[in-house]
Amino acid sequence: MNETLLDRIRPVTKRLRSVRFWRLLSVITFFGAGCAWLLQQEVAAGETSGTQVGRVLLLTILAISLIAYVLCRFSFRNPRAVARQIEQHFPSLDQRLLTALSQRDEELSYLQERVVREAREHSRTHRWAETVPTRQVVWSRLSGLGASLLFAVFVLGLLFPDRVTVEVNAAGSAVENVDSIEVQPGDAQVERGTSLVVTARFPNWVPERAEVMCQADDGTLRRIEMARNLDDPVLGGYVSSVNQSFTYRVVSPTWESESYAVEVFEYPELVRSDAFLSFPGYSGLPAKLIEDTVRVSAVEGTEHTWVCFLNKAGVAAELVAKDGSRTQLQPSDEYPGALIATFTLQESSRMKLVLRDDAGRTNKYPPELVARVLPNRPPSLKLTQGGDLTVSPLEEVELGAEVRDDFGVSALGIAYTFHRNSPVEIVLVEETGRGEKVAVSHLLAFEDLEAEPDQLLSYHFWAEDVGPDGETRRTESDMFFAEVRPFDEIFRQGEQPPGGQQQQQQQQQQESQNGQKAEELAELQKQIISSTWRVIRDERGAVRSGNFEANLRLIMEGQQDALSQLDEAAEAIEDEKSLAIVESVRADMQTALDQLTEALEGSGVGALPIAMTAEQTAYGGLLRLRAREFEVTRQQQQSQSQSQSQSQSQQRRQQQLDDLEIDQDENRYETEQQAEESTQQDAEEREIR
């Protein structure tokens, strides 16, 4: 490019850069002045520090201005772009300047030299610098300087907030102190976040205008206009939301008060409470931290730690239970800044957290911390197969049960005692899962037991788990019985006697009176055995329950009643073999009664298994007294009260009778009286015909 033409273009380029820079500077500083004005409002309200935000704003605007200067300095670097603006301002150039700039200096042709020469001549006769008018350059500089000055004024107001101009009177009298003016509350303490009302009472005169000047500890200045209520000689100012300590004074055009200090305090308060739970080993649960909670539920025996975070240090804390007991919270190395208290959960509790700081202030609303204890319940046992049975000596019986436990059982099995043999205990399942329902069964072969008629087998299911104390706990079901019946029981069909159902019942009662008494007595003895077993099962702990003595007395009364009934039944027995059985049963019942008496008088539960063994032996003897031969007839009617009064063994025998096929001829004339009435009726009908 031609250097002469480039020299003629440079003044235009400088003007373009200058106008752009000053325009950008005016926009930047005007924006900064607006920000400074808004920040002054916040500084006046005491919401922020003027010095700090003033410095930040000043540095920010200076940095942006420097960036704008650099960008403008490197703008308009393309001569052709500047030449286009010159061509637009001077149309007489007729594209000569752009054409000349596109030519190379070496080996120019005649026409090319002429174009360059005409462009240079035009620059001499015309002021290309007027492409950017002088007025535009001046106004851009004035706008930039004015905006910068405005910005400087507002920034200085932020940087030096303490220089407050106080109005003075026309005579220019200085501000004076008046001791008789009362300022309330003076030096004060207020709770963080609350408000404060400052009043000034003037005895003789009231200024037209006054302010409360609040100076925070961080240097923030806050002005609050005071107002007068009607004609009262009192001016008041409202300081809202006090969050930090500050000093204040009341300032009017002719007077200002001394400085007063306001200290901010906080009541002790619970910020957050966590609960750390270390579950007992039998639960199989890992330790757990529950954050931000005031209620927890955990299984019995859990080690529970309350972790309390407070709003400030130097606070004493204690948990107060409903019964008045108190537990102090202690600092913890594991939880820095927190206070903790540890309990072993045995029962549910509700405790209030009472806090007290160094100044003796307590928390206004003590929170309640609740710990709910879930009991470690014993396993649930349910019989699914079996119950009280009557079996033959060769029979195989399937016995089954279902168990479920909240934390699983360690063992599950069946225990039985046959005749006079020692008890047998069989483990069926080991280690079940938490909450798992498990069904078990066991096949009991009486042939393998060498069972004989009239022998008795008692059995029950049991399950073991871990109790709240960490020791093995056994839970047992009710006791059930299996009676071994004889191979042959004779059921002979008898003729229905005349005289109706009542005569038949009387005849049957007379024929089987002894067998029925033995049957009823055996049923009573079985109830005594079951009651004794329940007492043994429920009193396995070291401490006796409140119903222990009452239950034993009730069992003793039942056993004494059974002895009395046995004596009554023995009076009607003549068979020597049956009398020998009666004597054996009486001895066993007396042994059971003696052991029950010994348990009641102080030996405890230890004598009860011996008593139950004697009771079972007596029950087996009563089974041998039952009838073996029965004469039965079909009854036309059965009263509901009779069927309800039958014992379980009688009901089972009645079921066997119902299964028998007994043919009974129709008895057209059931009584002689009915036959005579029918004959007379037939004769009368013949006479009518």
Write the layout of secondary structure elements.
Elements (H helix, E strand, L loop, with lengths): L2 H42 L5 H24 L5 H11 L6 H6 L8 H16 L8 H26 L22 E3 L3 E4 L4 E6 L9 E6 L4 E5 L1 E2 L5 E6 L6 E7 L2 E2 L3 E6 L4 E9 L9 E3 L4 E5 L3 E8 L5 E6 L4 E3 L1 E2 L6 E7 L4 E8 L11 E7 L5 E6 L3 E3 L4 E9 L6 E8 L5 E7 L6 E9 L10 E11 L5 E5 L3 E5 L5 E4 L6 H12 L1 H26 L9 H24 L4 H28 L4 H17 L4 E4 L7 H5 L3 H12 L12 H17 L1
Parallel strand pairs: 2-10, 13-20, 22-29, 30-31
Antiparallel strand pairs: 1-3, 3-7, 4-5, 4-8, 6-7, 8-9, 8-10, 11-12, 11-14, 14-18, 15-16, 15-19, 17-18, 19-20, 21-23, 23-26, 24-25, 24-27, 27-28, 27-29
Helix pairs in contact: 1-2, 1-3, 1-6, 2-6, 8-9, 8-11, 9-10, 10-11
The gist of it:
This protein has 689 residues and is an alpha+beta fold. The protein has 14 helices and 31 strands.
Based on the model shown, name its key terms.
single chain, 689 residues, alpha+beta, Immunoglobulin-like, 6-stranded mixed sheet
Could you list the spans in which at least 5 consecutive residues all have pLDDT below 50?
162-177, 629-646, 662-678
Quote the distance from N terminus to C terminus.
163 Å
Mean pLDDT value: 79
Radius of gyration (Å) = 56 Å
Number of domains: 5
Instruction: Figure out the total of helices.
Output: 14
The share of residues in helices is 25-40%
Instruction: Summarize the biggest pleated sheet.
Output: 6 strands, mixed
Q: How does the helix and strand content classify structurally? A: alpha+beta
The percent range for strand residues is 25-35%
Q: Choose one word for the global shape.
A: elongated
